[in-house]
């Protein structure tokens, strides 16, 4: 549950929609009585002090047996298997003190997607909204964007940002390793129409059909496909104008593992930070020492 409340009405609307989704039956629906009970429960929880607002408290207001069973799996008070997702005993997120934040959502992309994918991604997008402050630039980088683009809650948020984000100084960078995944997402047409600048990285295995739907011409595609993966050259396209550009990162050998490390490097980084703290001034030199020893 979200505990930092900047607009109570918007928060209640979001919470109702989120709980409706996680408590729905196998067909994705709730009865009218179930919707009323969830709404009443959320209204009750929102009258509590901030530190007490959580899904476990909401569960106390749910009496309908089938609804209670479905919601229980998300609650720590019922030892629910999904309770780790949204029902933490302590909320450390404070948007008023955060300017930059990132979440590793790799697990959500495994297989056909984790059962908690929609709930977690919807919550992350909502937290992002809480971080935006009047007059400040807001950038959201969404890796493998096709995943949230296929869920109703996050899909609506993404479309709203694409169409009207500039009015609030907000924009998104949408990234995907596979054009096919992007093309098959539910709001692909809106994404193509609303993104002014598109970047295409080298892909020797690419098929023209997929790139054609991204408005890449045959000539552009041939040059792009001919590029080596290590060329650091990419296609930049705006409307009918395009060019090839190069990002030369030669000489950044010490910095690259920090921004894009292997699984082993990430584990070692986490170990170092647990020992010396999260201040980059302390952990980056120790991490670079590890990289040098590693060779």
Intertermini distance:
45 Å
Mean pLDDT: 89
Order of helices and strands: HHHHHHEHEHHEHHEEHHH
Secondary-structure-based class equals mainly alpha
**Helix fraction by DSSP (H/I, runs of at least 4):** 40-55%
Number of strands: 5
Percent of residues in β-strands: 5-15%
Radius of gyration: 22 Å
Categorize the overall geometry: globular
Q: Largest sheet, if any? A: 3 strands, antiparallel
User: Low-confidence parts lasting 5 or more residues at pLDDT below 50?
Assistant: 1-6
State the strand order across the main sheet. Answer: 3-4-5
User: What is the number of helical segments per DSSP (H or I, 4+ residues)?
Assistant: 14
Q: Could you please describe the fold and organization of this structure?
A:
This protein is mostly helical and 295 residues long. It is built from 14 helices and 5 strands. The protein has helices spanning 8-22, 32-45, 55-59, 65-72, 83-86, 117-131, 152-164, 179-183, 188-194, 208-212, 218-226, 256-259, 263-276, 280-294, and strands at 138-143, 170-175, 197-200, 233-238, 241-246. It has a 3-stranded antiparallel beta sheet, with no helix packed on it. Strand 1 (138-143), helix 7 and strand 2 (170-175) form a beta-alpha-beta unit. The termini are far apart.
